[in-house]
Amino acid sequence: MNQLDQVRKAAVKAIENAQDKIIAAGRHLWKIPEPGYREFNTSAFIVNELIKLGLEVKTNLAITGFRADIDTGKPGPTLAILGELDSLIIPTHPAADPATGAVHACGHNVGGAGLIGSAIALLAVKNELCGKIALIGTPAEEGIEMSYRKSLIDSGRIRAIAGKSQLIIEGVFDDVDIVFMNHLGKSYGFWDHNGAINKRLTFRGKSCHAARPQGGKNALNAATLAMNAIALLRESLGYNDKIRIHGVITHGGDAVNVIPDRIDMDYMLRMPHLEEMKKLNDRFDNVVIHAAQAAECEVSIDTLSGYMPLYDDPALGKIMQQVVKYLDPAAEFEFNPEFLTSSTDMGDIATVIPALHGYVPGRSGTGHGVDYAIEDEYSAYVKNAQVAALMAVELLSGNGDTGKKIAAGKAALMPIKEYIETVQKINRTVKSDE
């Protein structure tokens, strides 16, 4: 048995010995779901567990995020292992919090358990590694509650609606060379994803008695015209079957016998390339503004950068594939077989740092659905931690040559300063009367 294999076995054994603790952590986090930038109890629980392991933890990063470093004391790359913190809001899910409607129907409770398990393993073998491992809790991956997040931006508490983007802006990833995380799925593997831009539309008209509509200007008519214009815009985007444009009315009027003078809507624009996202962003605003004007109303459009497109690092993908084969030789591994139209703020990380958004099996039901459940706790919590820990071992063992080779790819990616400037340019407010 060579030295690397001894380290692998020691890391796996450390997690096996702590599996009851790791599974209990995952169960606890499932029961305390909190949506983005509100994950105070979630964060406090994981931070406390990391402190118990002897780690120093920097907290209050991107409001509820944190970072704990395992420093080997030897020169080498810095690898960040991420754990997502936030929940969705699906009040009809049987496990939803009755007060908030929050539920982990995307499996982010797995992220915290994975960080705890990874810490246990990597502390056990850190003397055989080089460089540094940063364990980072990342808030607000789900693109929800736009009004709340816009209020945080307006008050100066954040500058991005997505947690990983905010952490980049705050400098948390400035010294990081490689990033890895696992998401819960139905198989091992990784997939690239769309980027997304978030929109908040406010149509304004003039209220009057609905029985005498000629005295007012109907904001709902403006919104209806805009929805039809957006639907017709899609026809001209047929060149790319990955494009998605979808929205909801968040305020549709107050009384049926009053012509509504304000209609609020949230929209998301999803596309696979940043430059195309920028162009669609401008076209979307143009058709919405003209639709509002056609109904003799006004509209204000708040645009917020949601996520950059995610392009995973294939070399990291190969390492994950090797790790999965080591842990479970019979398991299938999906090596980026399809470009997904969904989005994640891991795309922001991969824009500036070599990164991999991996998946481990363990869930059942529909993602973001009322039947979502953790089906295999051992896979979701224990195997998840083992994959993450062994990724670190492969990248940082010995002199860290494997990690150094991948870290060198950072030079070809967007510099963090340019990324921040790009995000701030996307964030804007335009009005029909300007």
Question: Key terms for this structure?
Answer:
434 residues, 8-stranded mixed sheet, 6-stranded mixed sheet, alpha/beta, 18 strands, 39% helix
Structure description:
Strands 1-2-6-3-7-15-8-13 form an eight-stranded mixed β-sheet, sandwiched between helices. Strands 9, 10, 11, 12, 14 and 18 form a six-stranded mixed β-sheet that branches. It has a two-stranded antiparallel ribbon with strand order 4-5. It is of the alpha/beta class and 434 residues long. It has helices at residues 3-17, 19-30, 40-52, 109-125, 146-154, 163-169, 219-235, 274-294, 314-327, 346-352, 377-396, 401-407, 416-426; strands spanning 57-61, 65-71, 78-84, 88-89, 102-103, 132-138, 178-185, 188-190, 193-204, 244-251, 262-271, 298-307, 333-335, 340-343, 355-361, 363-364, 373-374, 428-431. Helix 9 packs across helix 11.
Strand content: 15-25%
Number of helices: 13
Helix content: 25-40%
- Taking Cα atoms only, what radius of gyration do you get, to the nearest Å? 23 Å
Please write out the topology.
Blueprint: H1 3-17, H2 19-30, H3 40-52, E1 57-61, E2 65-71, E3 78-84, E4 88-89, E5 102-103, H4 109-125, E6 132-138, H5 146-154, H6 163-169, E7 178-185, E8 188-190, E9 193-204, H7 219-235, E10 244-251, E11 262-271, H8 274-294, E12 298-307, H9 314-327, E13 333-335, E14 340-343, H10 346-352, E15 355-361, E16 363-364, E17 373-374, H11 377-396, H12 401-407, H13 416-426, E18 428-431
Parallel strand pairs: 3-6, 3-7, 7-15, 8-13, 9-14
Antiparallel strand pairs: 1-2, 2-6, 4-5, 8-15, 9-11, 9-12, 10-11, 12-18, 16-17
Helix pairs in contact: 1-4, 1-11, 2-4, 2-11, 3-4, 4-11, 7-8, 9-11
